[in-house]
Amino acid sequence: MNRREFLMASTAAVLLPTPGRAAAPLRLKAEPVNARILPEPKNLTPMLGFNGSTPGPEIRVPQRERVSVFFENGSERRSAIHWHGIHLDNAMDGVPNLTQAAVEPDETFHYAFDVPYAGTYWYHAHHRSWEQVARGLYGPLIVEEPDPPAVDRDITVVLDDWRLERNGSLHESFGNRHDFSHGGRMGNVARALFSRDTVRRGDRIRLRLINAATARIFAVSIDGGNGKVVAHDGMPLAEPVPPDDLLLAPAQRTDVILDVTGPVSFTLRTRQSSYGLGTIAVSGSNPAPIDTPIRPLPPAQVPVPDPNGAARLTLVMQGGAMGGHHGGSDFWAFNDRSGMPEAPWYRFSRGETARITLRNDTAFPHGIHLHGHHFHEIGDHGALGHYRDTTLVDPRQSRDILCVFDNPGKWLLHCHTLAHQASGMKTWVEVA
Ligand SMILES: [Cu+2]
């Protein structure tokens, strides 16, 4: 099988499970599920999911409220849940051996934390994540603004790919050396999964894109409307921009507000061709379309960096198949160190600002994720760019980020190509 070739283009829209409210304690049970990845009458795909489905149920919670989730591990392997992008209490961050012990099969762990910032987030397994996320252990986490923008529909769009056998089951090639030393586990089926499958012509819709893939960088085109990108990684853009040439590294999110003119279709652009990910159909028309300009979302009240007092650090990405780096299964490294060090890479005093140069000395792109914080991407001439929790650094390129380390605890810093994380590209920082 040529893994770079897709089995088929998408046909009917695939629906996400219905949202759960987080006000009452929620229960998330990891367990085996059968997923409809290939269209009928092809086989269902045996995977892992939460509460009977993959992706797991969308959790929606009002900003500043408390999320309370009882995670029951009904799978055969230990696991833990990470709440990606949330500035939460360190003990709730879900990283085994750093912030908690892994949750054994048949055990339950109670996650409870506040959500200070509105936006589009997600949750996912963080033990053997290169396998458990690829098997389906993840779901959307939406933090609602107290005063959300006026839209007719709020639609979550999960982007993912799966490597399937012809009989529909997951290809059991997890953790193979080729994936680990190259670009990670790429699928041969890719989809956009939607929380609803129809809109009306003239509707103003909010699309919350989440890249849940373990390796694929989604270059996405959206047809069927005119609109603006209003947020990245949950955080509002000061100046919304047209949704052209969207690029989402693994774990990144983008919010788009769109005025619908026709079926809303999502296309994956690859070097060779383009591939339909799915379409939200049009049914009827909106008798009273919203015709005000698309405004920026209300800005998040985030800490202001002190660029003058900033510590200067450099994190160099190394290794990979073409890098001639480490032997064994540790293919990747940060600053000559592969895997988790005993001591943190750096200790910050609480509230300290740091400017970090992320330098990619490899032949592969890496989306670097910092837990518990967001950071500013720094543009040319030092301008503050997007405020993100995951930043994509292309091969042989570098990017500076500016971060206020204001959340105490032990925070993982790693590549979100999960095969790269598993084979060495990770470290951690401590804020005290
Ligand atoms: Cu990487």
Write up what this structure looks like.
The strands form five sheets. Strands 1, 11, 12, 13, 14, 15, 16, 17, 18 and 19 form a ten-stranded mixed sheet that branches. The mean pLDDT is 93. The protein has two domains: 14-285, Cupredoxins -  blue copper proteins (Immunoglobulin-like, Sandwich), CATH 2.60.40; 311-431, Sandwich (Immunoglobulin-like). The chain is 3% helix and 47% strand. It has three helices and 30 strands. The chain has 432 residues and is mainly β. Copper (II) ion is lined by residues 366, 415, 417, 420, 425.
CATH architecture of the largest domain: Sandwich
List the ligand species: copper (II) ion
Number of helices: 3
Shape: globular
Chain-averaged pLDDT = 93
Rg from alpha-carbon coordinates: 21 Å
Which structural class is indicated by helix and strand composition?
Answer: mainly beta
Strand proportion, as a percent range, falls in: over 45%
Task: Please tag this protein with its features.
Immunoglobulin-like, globular, about 425 residues, ten-stranded mixed sheet, about 5% helix, mainly beta, binds copper (II) ion
What is the structure about, briefly put?
The protein has 432 residues and is mainly β. It has helices spanning 129-132, 177-181, 418-422; strands at 14-15, 20-21, 26-35, 45-50, 59-62, 66-73, 81-84, 108-114, 119-125, 138-144, 153-162, 189-194, 198-201, 204-211, 218-232, 235-241, 246-248, 253-269, 274-285, 311-319, 332-334, 346-348, 352-360, 366-370, 375-378, 384-388, 390-393, 398-405, 409-415, 426-431.
